[in-house]
Fold this sequence. Notes:
Layout: E1 3-4, E2 9-13, E3 20-26, H1 36-46, E4 63-67, E5 69-70, E6 73-74, E7 79-84, E8 99-100, H2 106-113, H3 129-145, E9 149-157, E10 160-161, H4 165-169, H5 175-182, H6 194-209, E11 216-223, H7 237-246, E12 251-256, H8 267-270, E13 274-276, E14 282-284, E15 292-293, E16 296-297, E17 302-308, E18 318-322, E19 327-330, H9 341-368
Amino acid sequence: MNTFGRLLRLTTFGESHGTALGGVIDGFPAGFAIDESVIEQALRQRQGGQSTLTTPRREPDQVRFLSGIYEGRTLGTPIAFIIENADTRSQDYSALKDLYRPGHADFTYQAKYGHRDARGGGRASARETVVRVAAGALCAQWLRTEGIHIAAYLSQVGTVYYDEYAYRTAVHLSTEDVDLLQRRYEHHLPCPDEATAKQMAEAVATARDNRDSIGGIISCRIDGLPAGLGEPLYDKLSSRLASAMMSINAARAFEIGDGFALASRQGSACNDPFVPTPSGEIEQTTNHCGGLLGGITTGAPLFFRTAFKPTSSIGLPQMLCGSDKSLHEYTITGRHDPCVALRAVPIVEAMTALTLMDFYLLHRAHQSGAWR
């Protein structure tokens, strides 16, 4: 499937080394004023070629809107846009046409379709995510007008960990923690703590210098969500978020709240009590559940983590199988990220925004009775 969402739907198209990539957003409300600088900023945060820790491939990533926006406001009609490819070097992949790279989708795409684009992975390339980031930036703008703020960051690279206890469990953040989270993109890598970001950068540089790669984990905290977003049983917000994150290239694991750590605890240590507040509301005191119960938001901050595997394209010799079933020792060349997690932070934010806006519109439809 190349379409994501229910009421708000994003359909994407294009390949890594094709003429352009693009998308069509259907279901976006009319009359919303678009700030294109926010889209440009999100795309810059995803861009390669900005440091020695990412791929040298540098695309201008200029969005050209074809429909759905007039005089800076959405029309309620499909928003179509394209992003042209410019810095392609397809010759880097000419020798791989009949070889299956380990860890890539080369073999599986060939098995499924019988014909594939070997240039940069074609449709399976992370280049496709530029469309998601552009669409997600539109949704994030809309969500901010509803008081919803999304912040993803690197919480682990290799064996370098960031102590994120406050962001994971606190219902209310201190002013200092809020400030650190807002400034995450100002550091060496998008991590709230500059010292940890430097250590992460050193780990990536070491892997790069060894012609190898390294994995990482991206955490995401969303503040301002109302209680009640999510559908029961088979369309939980938790399951849709998992689907969204696992659709990102190189994503290999997903957890909400304390996630896998809960398996080794007792209920008395991780239940989140609800208490009345002076304003007459009800809120959690802690947030081990990650802001979701029964797949529906509790009103507490939503928190989840996504793990990304090390980049499969490395500069060390490997054994590759050919389409003729022969084995070849081959060293993969071309331009690749030593750690894909670095540039996946804005992608996680984009997929979160697309998911949450879709559920927000579903929630409004339920409340108005339009969905009955």
